């Protein structure tokens, strides 16, 4: 009797396990377990790349992830982190689809160029292709309050961009040369990604810092299709050869207590909030800020 009870219990457990598998498969729209589309969120001002790259590597090495969707909602950010994210995405052999949210401008568009297909909403704010250096000048304020800032430097350009003095013509020439170099890197990245749709001359013409709606970007061949995030996920599943509705894997960002108290979705990094005035060097949209 005892052995019979044990077999009945074990049989019930096995039957329940297979029933759960059937239910999970039915809930996933008939998609075989293990075939997923991963969504990577790139939101807010891009000042660091470590967390995003870690997530890229996680999905790259996960055999159950067959395609990746980049959900981009950012005005851009610092040059180096943008390029680091773009470089890691270029190494991915799985299909990548970019889904543009409210904005995917400047560095956001740069990252989107790593995708096989770029999808934007008609009203997405994108473009703003270019580089910007910004300076905060405090010399006039210091003069008014009677403060003097003194510098000992090793070379003529060591304090270029200092908030405590005016830029000289030589300073401007050095900075402009650097901006032009990084701008050309941006143009090269776009042309490499979309050279089958645009000539380099056409890319340069579109890369004067102007912004585009998603609809305008489609007309200018900067994006491939109009649609939302579910559309992008569907396209990614199709590119990966997933039959039926793909399962979605998405790592949700935790909201800090401070953000919850203020009622905002994303605070700028503290190092940006409290950074001293000086040179900023960005692939970032700037609308009078």
Second rung of CATH, namely the architecture: Alpha-Beta Complex
Oligomeric state: single chain
Fourth-level CATH superfamily: 2-enoyl-CoA Hydratase, Chain A, domain 1
* Text of the CATH class: Alpha Beta
**Continuous helix count:** 11
SS-derived structural category: alpha/beta
- Indicate the low-confidence ranges by residue numbers: 28-32, 272-279
Order of helices and strands: HEHEEHEHEEEHHHEHEHEHHE
Q: Roughly what is the average pLDDT, rounded to an integer?
A: 84
What percent strand? Answer: 15-25%
**Main sheet summary:** 8 strands, mixed
Can you count the beta strands? Answer: 11
Kindly state the percentage of residues in helix. Answer: 40-55%
**Alpha-carbon distance between the termini?**
80 Å
Domain module count: 1
CATH topology type: 2-enoyl-CoA Hydratase, Chain A, domain 1
Q: Secondary-structure map with pairings?
A:
Layout (H helix, E strand, L loop, with lengths): L1 H26 L8 E8 L6 H12 L3 E10 L1 E3 H12 L5 E10 L1 H6 L4 E4 L4 E3 L4 E3 L4 H7 L23 H26 L5 H7 L4 E3 H6 L5 E2 L2 H11 L7 E4 L6 H6 L7 H4 L6 E5 L5
Parallel strand pairs: 1-2, 1-10, 2-4, 4-5, 4-6, 5-9
Antiparallel strand pairs: 3-11, 6-8, 7-11
Helix pairs in contact: 2-3
Overall description:
The protein is an alpha/beta fold and 289 residues long. It has a single domain, classed as 2-enoyl-CoA Hydratase, Chain A, domain 1 (Alpha-Beta Complex), CATH 3.90.226.10. Helices cover 43% and strands 19% of the residues. It contains eleven helices and eleven strands. The strands form two sheets. Strands 1, 2, 4, 5, 6, 8, 9 and 10 form an eight-stranded mixed sheet that branches. It has a three-stranded antiparallel sheet with strand order 3-11-7. Helix 4 links the parallel strand 4 and strand 5. The chain is elongated and about 95 Å long.
């Amino acid at each position: 009797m005892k052995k019979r009870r044990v077999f009945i219990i074990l049989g019930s457990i096995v039957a329940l396990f297979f029933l759960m598998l059937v239910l999970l498969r039915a809930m996933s729209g008939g998609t075989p377990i293990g075939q997923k589309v991963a969504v990577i969120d790139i939101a807010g001002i891009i000042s660091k790349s470590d967390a995003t790259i870690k997530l890229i590597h996680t999905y790259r090495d996960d055999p159950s992830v067959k395609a990746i969707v980049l959900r981009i909602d950012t005005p851009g950010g610092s040059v180096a982190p943008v390029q680091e994210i773009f470089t890691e995405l270029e190494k991915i052999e799985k299909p990548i689809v970019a889904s543009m949210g409210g904005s995917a401008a400047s560095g956001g568009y740069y990252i989107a160029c790593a995708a096989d297909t770029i999808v934007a909403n008609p009203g997405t704010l994108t473009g703003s292709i270019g580089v910007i250096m910004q300076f905060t000048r405090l010399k006039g304020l210091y003069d008014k309050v009677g403060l003097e800032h003194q510098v000992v430097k090793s070379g003529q350009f060591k304090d270029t961009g200092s908030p405590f003095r005016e830029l000289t013509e030589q300073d401007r020439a050095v900075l402009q040369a650097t901006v032009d170099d990084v701008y050309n890197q941006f143009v090269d990245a776009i042309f490499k990604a979309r050279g089958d749709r645009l000539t380099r001359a056409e890319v340069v013409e579109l890369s004067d810092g102007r912004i585009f709606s998603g609809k305008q970007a489609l007309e200018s061949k900067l994006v491939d299709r109009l649609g939302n995030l579910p559309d992008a996920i569907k396209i990614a599943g199709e590119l990966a050869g997933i039959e039926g509705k793909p399962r979605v894997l998405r790592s949700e960002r935790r909201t800090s207590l401070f953000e919850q108290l203020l009622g905002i979705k994303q605070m700028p990094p503290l190092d940006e909030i409290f950074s001293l005035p000086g040179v900023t060097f960005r692939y970032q949209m700037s609308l009078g800020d």
